[in-house]
Amino acid sequence: MYQYSGPGSQEVTDAWNAGFFGGMAFERYLAQQGYIVACVDGRGTGGRGAEFEKQTYLQLGAERRRATRWKLRFTSFYYRYMKTSFPKAYSTPRQIVQILKSRGIHFDDEDKAENYLMNIGYHRLSAYIFPFYKSPKSDLVLKDGTTFEQVMTLYRFDKKLRIVLFNEIEKIEVAIRSVLANMGCQELGDKYWITKAEYFANAEKFGQTLTVIEKELASSKEEYIENFRQNYMEDYPPAWMITEVLSFGNLNYIYSNIASNRLRKLIADYFGLKPQVFPYPFVCWVCVMFLALSVSCLL
pLDDT tens digit string along 162-220? Predict the structure, then answer.
């Protein structure tokens, strides 16, 4: 649920410019993954007359908490009780070929197409058939001249692109892990700096990070972590081991909380990013890399 509810604000409009990043891009992505996305305006927001806007006068927090609870309850009720049974029956690859033929697709070799559908699956291939449907796409009528080979060409292109993207993003991810650990140790002169509160600006954020680190170390089956546990007395391994077991998002969280402006600048400069007060370009860049990596894995 997306809500701002600032004085005089209005997020629910007849336009495609709402959401966390504008343009509804992030919200559309969530919806494609099966999440229900709701944008709401609470009591006290604009665009609905003076009576609605003045309801929060002298009781801003109470009214908005009450309104938000009702929105969440309604969304939960809708999700739980308004669903229906899945109507589609299973179709064999041969049946799917005939269904696609009825929609207008041309097959040079139906037996070969059936093998592709058996090995890849129609559910996966349907995403590559979708662009070939005429508008409105809900009619399920394919454009004139659409062939199954065109669908497979698009599928192969996407597969190769995903491999290239994943390979390049992985290089960046490995570099971020190593640079964060190396530069932190060099600049601070402490190989355990990642697990020490004195090097971080926000104690609460550090506590959250430390909890994640402890959880990841406890569940890690990496041989070097097991070896450290068995042979050394320190509570935590050095930074270069810890950065290897944390997620991309955790590393970004650590960077954003580093107290030393100089250290943050050194890390950002290494990747050719100019430092500034907020938002940190490095943080935004890593967020984009993390999203690209996630999408590459999901495709």
Answer: 888 888 888 888 999 999 999 999 999 999 999 999 999 999 999 999 999 999 999 99
d(CA 190, CA 106): 66
Model pTM score: 0.58
Question: In this structure, what token pair is assigned to residue 295?
Answer: 């999408």
Q: What is the DSSP-derived secondary structure letter of residue 258?
A: B
- Which structure tokens are listed for 29? 């992505």
Task: Give me the residue label for tokens 């509570």.
Answer: 235
